[in-house]
């Protein structure tokens, strides 16, 4: 596969054999990459397919390209992992979004919990979400993914528990588990998964979940696991989980 | 194990039944933690052992504590992994040090290579190294490790190849490997390791290794591997490798 620049293009911009790239991506192609007619780029369709395309025309804010070849193969994980992350500071959440996207996450849910120290200003939420979406889009392009992970609105524990029914496996990365000698082995739980399974992993905020929150999750079939024997910072836990699942299903095979 | 604050104490400060804590750590205990006589702290000996101790006396810059109980168990990885990291910008290297320590690395080697974009000012090296050491010490304490990873001086590829003989396995995380369909499976290589094996993992800088550098490493028995099917940023690659080895040997067991 040629090492071409990748762009995610919304479904409505695909017409028969032509793709139209607009807005910031069009600007990136013409001004940053300084592309010209005849140059090739890879366009990703939201359904996960990708095609090598050739640029035909560029206007000030549109780039038109024709599909030359649909690409086979995918860099998507066989296991769809949703990371429900207890709200850390904004920059740490952005870190989880960027690295988590590289490591194959399917979706992210910021979780408001009892011990969340930070509060995200509701008025700034729209702007913040726009920035978050930009981070996962760029990380998806950079890591050659076929799909952009979704980011859900800030969710509370009760709501998370209610909405968790659709998942095949629900895990609670519980710091307390790492300190005891008796715990659920993360490896054993992960190894039992099958391709196309959907997994929800909940990770506590900096201060950890309260006992009450942990109880709500456990009552809703969240399995407490430890992520290795060392105490991980909240923003490192998601990466441990994602790298491990990738190792198990994409490298051990 | 009680969730007490941990401090790494140099070997010369352990006397029979007493431990003496000095400098910044003494300051941390008295001023930040506001500890008093009778309070307990965990002291880590450089040999990897740790003990619960009770504070007896505090002066302006010394804290004296008696050993109450040696702790069993260890949060150290059974596989000693050295991360040889192609020099990224300073803040990214600091990120690798902090997260890599949490994830169990035994040592770090900053590697100067052909495509290294950044140069680290030799005059500032001493100050920089002091800062690096502080980061790994604090991350070791925070993650409840028994040992502080070492940080070696900046090393060039030829020198790294020469000094790599003591390792049981040498890996080259080679971005090009992730793009092809035929590659060495990281899982298969890792699975064959035995406890106490020493592994050296070399990770290219932002621009990747030059072909010549990759050749030097391959001639010196470095095995090229891919770390999952997605293209990882240089600072994410070390974390993928460390989390995977932890998963294999500390969670799959």
UniProtKB/TrEMBL annotation, chains A, B:
Signal peptide: none annotated. GO terms for molecular function: methyltransferase activity. Residues 76-245 form the Ribosomal RNA small subunit methyltransferase E methyltransferase domain. It catalyses: uridine(1498) in 16S rRNA + S-adenosyl-L-methionine = N(3)-methyluridine(1498) in 16S rRNA + S-adenosyl-L-homocysteine + H(+). Keywords: Cytoplasm, Methyltransferase, rRNA processing, S-adenosyl-L-methionine, Transferase. Residues 21-67 form the Ribosomal RNA small subunit methyltransferase E PUA-like domain. It is an enzyme of class 2 (transferase). The keyword Methyltransferase applies. It is found in: Cytoplasm. Its EC number is 2.1.1.193. Pfam families: Methyltrans_RNA, PUA_4. One of its GO terms (biological process) is methylation. Specifically methylates the N3 position of the uracil ring of uridine 1498 (m3U1498) in 16S rRNA. Acts on the fully assembled 30S ribosomal subunit. NCBIfam families: PRK11713.1-4, PRK11713.1-5, RsmE family RNA methyltransferase. Belongs to the RNA methyltransferase RsmE family. This is Ribosomal RNA small subunit methyltransferase E. The lineage of its organism: Bacteria, Bacillati, Bacillota, Bacilli, Bacillales.
């Amino acid at each position: 596969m040629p090492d071409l620049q990748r762009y995610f293009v919304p479904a409505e911009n695909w017409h028969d054999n032509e793709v139209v790239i607009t807005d910031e991506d069009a600007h990136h192609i013409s001004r940053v990459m300084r592309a010209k007619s005849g140059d090739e780029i890879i366009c990703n369709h939201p359904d996960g397919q990708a095609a090598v395309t050739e640029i035909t025309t560029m206007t000030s804010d549109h780039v038109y390209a024709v599909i030359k070849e649909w690409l086979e193969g995918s860099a998507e994980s066989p296991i769809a992992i949703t990371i429900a992350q207890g709200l850390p500071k904004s920059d740490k959440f952005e870190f989880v979004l960027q690295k988590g996207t590289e490591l194959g996450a399917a979706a992210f849910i910021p979780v408001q919990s009892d011990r969340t120290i930070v509060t995200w200003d509701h008025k700034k939420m729209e702007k913040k979400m726009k920035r978050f979406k930009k981070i996962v889009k760029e990380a998806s392009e950079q890591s050659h993914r076929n799909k952009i992970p979704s980011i859900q609105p800030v969710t509370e524990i009760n709501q998370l528990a209610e909405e968790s029914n659709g998942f095949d496996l629900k895990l609670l990365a519980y710091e307390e588990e790492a300190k005891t000698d008796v715990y659920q082995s993360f490896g054993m739980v992960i190894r039992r998964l099958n391709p196309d399974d959907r997994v929800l992993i909940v990770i506590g905020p900096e201060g950890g979940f309260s006992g009450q929150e942990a109880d709500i999750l456990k009552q809703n079939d969240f399995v407490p696991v430890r992520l290795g024997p060392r105490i991980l910072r909240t923003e490192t836990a998601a990466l441990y989980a994602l790298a491990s699942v990738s190792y198990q299903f994409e490298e051990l095979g």
